Protein: Glucosamine 6-phosphate N-acetyltransferase
Organism: Komagataella phaffii
Amino acid sequence: MQPVSVPALPQGYNLRRVGKEDFQDKNLFKTLSILTTVGDIPEPKFHALIEYWNDRKEIYNPMVITNAENVIIATGMLFVEHKLIHGGGKVGHIEDISVNPSEQGKKLGLIMIRNLIQIAQTEGCYKVILDCDEKNVRFYEKCGMKIEGVEMGYRF
Amino acid sequence: MQPVSVPALPQGYNLRRVGKEDFQDKNLFKTLSILTTVGDIPEPKFHALIEYWNDRKEIYNPMVITNAENVIIATGMLFVEHKLIHGGGKVGHIEDISVNPSEQGKKLGLIMIRNLIQIAQTEGCYKVILDCDEKNVRFYEKCGMKIEGVEMGYRF
């Protein structure tokens, strides 16, 4: 199997896992709040969630991109589901992709997606899926993905 | 919040978690193979997966419905993702829904879905999502779900 190609980040930008230290400057929260409601997360709850994710690294891959000023400006999660079907196969689920609009035009969304697909390949997934709005289909096609179906939801 | 309503199973039918004993009669595999490729799973690999799921019960809820002859005739998985967004909220993902065609007309698919939604509610999820083919949208609407978006995929 060919390794997934991943475009390079701009000079000084980095991709890394979310850590407990990301509570302080709030840039993780600011970037996620572009996507959806983040809500109030006190520091102990944030630390507990990071520990929960870190204790399950084979499942949770919460990633961020930082710019040359070391500020978080993009987010993305890959979590890995272990199935019975497909010979006991794994599926990667991409979630919570957000890029700060001030950083547009640098292909950071595409770079994040391709990195998450690469992690999924390394973890031995047979496919990666995500759900998006109709208006973002074109972007995910540029990332190498195809329409597979319809997302249905039930909200409490 | 109102508890989710769940229709009753037919007399003698039961909903339960998948267990190691389900390797023997192969009815779990037969039911899943209606949905997709199951592939070859040797018994030790099956047992290891059941242990993996059982060690992570707050994430994996692999459920089956058995008929009056104690034969597995429907499958469904709910797995629970712990997020940072929505105040550190949880999302339930429904996967691998399959019902044996010989049992059609008993609303087993709907009963499975409503049970998985109920588990998600008990686990404190703020929403439940699943991906399906266009042709199954009407069925999931009958289960109380709504179209939320487009599923995109990347296959290795």
Summary: The longest strand of chain B covers residues 72-82. Strands of chain B lie at 14-17, 60-66, 72-82, 90-99, 125-132, 146-155. Chain B has one domain: 14-142.
